[in-house]
Amino acid sequence: MEQREVELLEKYAPTDPELKELWEDHVLYEKQVDKLEAKGYRTPTEEQTLKQLKKQKLEGKTKLMAILDRYCAQEK
Questions:
Q1: Residue range(s) defining the domain that contains residue 13
Q2: How many domains does the chain have?
Q3: pLDDT digits over 21-65, tens only?
Q4: How close are the terminal C-alpha atoms of the chain, in Å?
Q5: In CA terms, which of 26, 50, 66, 76 is 20 to 30 Å from 42?
């Protein structure tokens, strides 16, 4: 994330529950993805889980960025 996006998150997350939840989910998915990717060998189930986590992370980030874009436009 860019510095501006992080600043918007810090500013608006305390008062926007949806934004806060999306950010917390994003961080959680990031940790889970990193943990699975760090394994030298993944079972087929782990591979499927990894794909699903990446998909959820991307969907959440898309929503997160849309909200941040709205806040950015409001500040201009």
A1: 3-75
A2: 1
A3: 999 999 999 999 999 999 999 999 999 999 999 999 999 999 999
A4: 20
A5: 26
Asked if 38 and 45 count as a contact pair (C-beta separation under 8 A), the reply is no
Q: How far apart are the C-alpha atoms of 7 and 71, rounded to whole Å?
A: 11
Write down the residue that tokens 């436009």 correspond to. Answer: 73
Exposure string over 34-73, b if 16+ CB within 10 A, otherwise e? eebeeeeeeeeeeeeebeebeebbeebbebbeebbeeeee
pTM of the model: 0.88
d(CA 9, CA 14): 9
Strands (E), the chain: none
Question: DSSP characters for the chain?
Answer: --HHHHHHHHHHTTT-HHHHHHHHHHHHHHHHHHHHHH-SS--HHHHHHHHHHHHHHHHHHHHHHHHHHHHHHHH-
